[in-house]
TrEMBL record:
This is Uncharacterized protein. It comes from Anaerocolumna chitinilytica. It comes from the Bacteria. The chain crosses the membrane at residues 42-64, 84-101, 110-128, 134-154, 174-192, 212-234, 241-267, 279-298. Keywords: Membrane, Transmembrane, Transmembrane helix.
Amino acid sequence: MTESKKADSVKAKNVNTKNINTKNINTKSINSKNIEINKDKVLVYFTIPIVVLIILCSGIGILNQDVYAKETIDWMSQCLGQDISNLVCVAPILIISAFLITKGVRGAKIIWAGTMLTNIYSYVIYAFAVHFNFLFLLYCLILGLSIYAVIYFFSQYMKEDFREWYEKGVATRAVGNFLLIVGILFVLLWLSQSLPSALANTVPESIQTDGLLTNPVHALDFSFYLPLMLVAAVKLKKKKALGFLLAPMMLVFAGITSVNIISLMVVSAIKTSADNTPMIIAFSILLIICLVFLRLILKKLIKERI
């Protein structure tokens, strides 16, 4: 009888221990989800003021002729085209992706980060390559918020193994090869424009036409964005964890940049009567391919809150 009681007591203790362990696991799971929700909220807190400022600056840029009054007709056309793209593409993507982030959509995090990275690109140009105007401080504010938003994103998620975000069968080779081709082609294209002038110590015609001191697009692409695209491609082809984040981000960057270029080419054609049809067609094709590959990789994301 005594042995039976002891056995029952041991069983009861084991059951209690299991219950406690289960509760601890559930508590840890809840705490982990709460931490992720708080991370998501911070991304939204960054997004709202950035989007409001983008809409404000771009709206004023389109409606107020004084903003770009000091620019050449070519550069003014490009600025207006960028403003239009900001309103119809960048701002909506940031708002929608931020909303979906709060719902735990993994793809939204990647799209948000890629869009914010593209926004940094645009506002570096606004801040450094547009003549000083009454929107200058707002350009700086958007640029600063966008930079710190991306820094925050990476600081929170760099410890993640991004391979675990995906199901098996991600088209790593196809996406990686595409990014490699795009990156290398743009390196060669920009070199064909800048290298001959650099060797001859002359200013490229495009810089003179735009009335600029240098080419901000070439500066950004050579120093950061194209190397990052190539790194993303190599990392993904080698199935490294970081490649599964950077590669789709760079597809977003390439896609939105294509929209930006299409927009400014259309405005430039209207303002200057230039025949930009070949460029518009080329970047429309690039945009479609970027969307196809982005869809190809994002459809493999595991649909649950990270």
